[in-house]
Amino acid sequence: MKINKLNSIILLGLVAIISILVAQLLWTKEAFNLEQKKLSQKAHIALLEVAKKLYEGTNHELPAQNPVQKIANDYYIVNVDNDFEPEILEFYLKTEFKKMNITTDFEYAMYNCQSDEMIYGDYISLSKKGKENKTVYFPKHKNLVYYFAVRFPNETTYLFSSMRFWFILSTVLILILLIYVYSIFKLLQQKKYSELQRDFINNMTHEFKTPLSSILIASKYLIEQNPIKEDKKLHTYTDIIINQSHKLNSHIEKILSIAKSDYVPLELKTESVLIVPILEETITNIQLKYPEAVIKIDTNSQDYLIEADVFHFTNLVYNLLDNAVKYCNEKPEIQIRILKENQSLKLEFADNGIGIPPKKISSIFDKFYRVQNEKSNEVNGFGLGLFYVKEICNLHYWKINATNNLEKGITITLTIPYKK
CB under 8 Å to 182, separation ≥6 — which residues? Predict the structure, then answer.
């Protein structure tokens, strides 16, 4: 299967976002390592200063060898070859850590010569959460007599909090990637459904048109035969076959034109036309089909001119009137109102039909959508009539909307730009 242009763009976009995300994660990891190293250096300097202060005022000198040893990422021991008091040690630790801007909690312990074990000192809380009462085991170290140990129990949390911006940025990038992948998945899924729908429509209409053409040819030949002309019932039945075949053929042509318009837009041949004569001609055709229908035009002028494609505008009006008559339980009464508002004309089609549930009225212009109601089983159709109407309005840059009337029926309004 060849990778088309759309798939190439999708693949490149996906690779680009994943690359950015991987780079961001690597930068975040490197930043974490740098922050950890920075904290280790500051802690080392602070503990060295504490050791120096513990030697001040004594007869001993600070040994040449570095007294600070890092046992683990969050655990240090400091060798002080001199006796010291816990209160003094705690004071120096707080002071030096504050100087080095180490604001995370810590705890310390000292080696006791008499008991030959580490004596837990205290937990020092430098955060706003307050002091915690807990004891952590401090291991004893060989070959050291006077020494103390310091542990940072919340080091990882402290480092993460100092890198808040990096984690927010990484999270945003991950969300963008997930949204992009989801959007691409939905796009490909929709594309697949669209192709299946197009193939189905093309195959279905092709299979319909072949036998339908044969039926029309045979029926037209049959109706010209003398025995059929002489028998009134047979002539009527044959005429019904021809009319219904033409009706079915018009449905098929409509499906084909709608399917084609999804890929090749319809071309309009616009010209200046009078609205009222087109409405009157369409009303005449509708009343031939539905003699009981009462359709009136309410307008202040017979001279309203608009720019429109006559063929498609006529079909648009016919579809609206045809729907209004079919979805009515009583004698159809339709009023067409033409109103001028500022620089536009309002063309309103108000009927006394069964109406549409408010939750579904916004969907009536969708392709293949049919409202399930008491008339839906009686009225034949594919849910393309109002979709075609909406498409023609869009091509003319007109606006269309539908609203339920206060008592019964609906009103469909076309807003048409008007300049005289």
Answer: none
pLDDT exceeding 90 applies to what percent of the chain?
9
**Who's near 314: CB < 8 A, 6+ residues apart?**
278, 281, 282
- Give, for 206, the enclosing helix (H) or strand (E): helix 164-223
Residues 341-386 have pLDDT tens digits of 888 899 999 998 888 888 888 888 887 777 766 555 556 566 677 8
CA 21 to chain centre: 21
Q: Quick check: 332 and 352 in contact, CB under 8 A?
A: yes
Q: What is the pLDDT of residue 2?
A: 44
The amino acid present at 398, given as its one-letter code, is W
Length of the chain: 420
The CA-atom distances, in angstroms, between 420 and each of 97, 272, 333 are: 83, 11, 31
CB 61 within 8 Å of CB 11: no
Helix, strand, coil percentages in the chain from 3-state DSSP, rounded to 5: 50, 20, 30
Pair of tokens at residue 68: 């600070």
SS3 state at 24: helix
The answer to whether the CB of 326 falls within 8 A of the CB of 305 is no
Cα 184 to chain centroid, rounded? 11
Task: Give the Cα separation of 244 and 252 in Å (integer).
Answer: 12
Residues of the chain with pLDDT > 70: what percent? 81
Helix H, strand E, coil C: the string for 267-300 is: CCCEEEEEHHHHHHHHHHHHHHHCCCCEEEEEEC
Do residues 333 and 294 make contact, with C-beta atoms less than 8 angstroms apart?
yes
Compute how many other C-beta atoms are within 10 angstroms of the C-beta atom of residue 70: 13
| pTM given for the model | 0.46
Residues 6+ away with beta carbon under 8 Å from 82:
54, 55, 58, 60, 146
98: helix, strand or coil? helix
Tokens 């080095």 — which residue? 100
Q: Residues 392, 386: contact at Cβ < 8 Å?
A: no
